[in-house]
Amino acid sequence: DVCSSDLPQMQENMTKCVAKVEAAKARVIFSTFQAADVRKSGEAPAARRKLYATELWSFCHENKWPVVDVFQPLNRLQQGAQKEDDKYTMLRDSIHLTDPAYIAWGYFLYDGMKLKDGGSELVIVPGQLLKEQGCKLVGGLGAVKVKGNGEEIRFVRHDLVLPILPPGQLPPRKFVPLEKQSSYRLSIGGLKAGMYEIECEGKLLGVASADDLRKGVNINTLILDSGTTPPWDDLAKRIWSGKDLEQIGKTQWNWRVARK
């Protein structure tokens, strides 16, 4: 028995919390407890977290309260990453997550909340088609500079939403929806077959084929694949440290896509 006697009190506290939130006309949403690395937390605390997470989820569903399960994805992260590297742990001590694991927790939470309109997508077919979602093509299609029969394209993108990755060490992307929840997409049609370099503010972010660009690429995937530091790294660090939240700085970027 891992403290099942505490469950009635937990349920009572949850009910009181919902009453307070609803009285304030705010949104109710629960999140389950985190998982653990049993090697650092100990078996009994790990079992308690699993019990509380399971019972919280069930009690929410009984009462039709919104709930996001972060326990299961965090548990899969620990088990999957540990299987690939036995030294991996998401805990810095017996209970607190490491910084990368806290990032993973946030991504799992966003994923479970099924937030909409969090990404940014720009689709360009020079002279023909323009699609903007969460961004604007500065000057429209008429401002797109095409050189060498389409072998080089330059444009300025203004991001209303800038879904950049957090700075610093990230959790294993294999087990965390980094790219799904940080969707920063670019699609360019009408290019000749070949490989194209994608630059932003003069910095090479990655290389993609004409076919991949036609289908659309996630800029964050290119960055993770190449290991490069993006031009908005300083901005990401300021936001991450809680600075410049009202005036976050540069959101307009010069882009160049050129055939290799």
Verbal overview:
It is a single chain. The chain contains 9 helices and 12 strands. The strands form 3 sheets. Strands 5, 6, 7, 9, 10 and 12 form a 6-stranded antiparallel sheet that branches. A 4-stranded mixed sheet has the order 4-3-8-11. The protein has a two-stranded parallel ribbon with strand order 1-2. The protein is elongated. 37% of the residues lie in helices and 22% in strands. By secondary structure, it is an alpha+beta fold.
Fraction in beta strands: 15-25%
List SSEs in N-to-C order. HEHHEHHEEEEEHEEEHEHHE
Which spans have pLDDT < 50 for at least 5 consecutive residues? none
Q: Could you tell me the number of beta strands?
A: 12
Major sheet size, sense and barrel closure: 6 strands, antiparallel
Helical amount: 25-40%
Instruction: Compute the number of helices.
Output: 9
Distance N to C terminus: 64 Å
SS content category: alpha+beta
Mean pLDDT: 92
In one word, what is the shape?
elongated
Q: How large, in whole angstroms, is the Cα Rg? A: 23 Å
Layout: helices, strands, pairs:
Layout: H1 7-23, E1 30-31, H2 38-41, H3 43-62, E2 67-68, H4 71-84, H5 99-113, E3 120-125, E4 129-133, E5 135-137, E6 145-147, E7 152-159, H6 178-181, E8 184-188, E9 195-200, E10 203-209, H7 210-215, E11 217-218, H8 219-226, H9 233-240, E12 252-259
Parallel strand pairs: 1-2, 3-8
Antiparallel strand pairs: 3-4, 5-7, 6-7, 7-12, 8-11, 9-10, 9-12
Short description:
37% of the residues lie in helices and 22% in strands. The protein is α+β, with helices and mostly antiparallel strands.
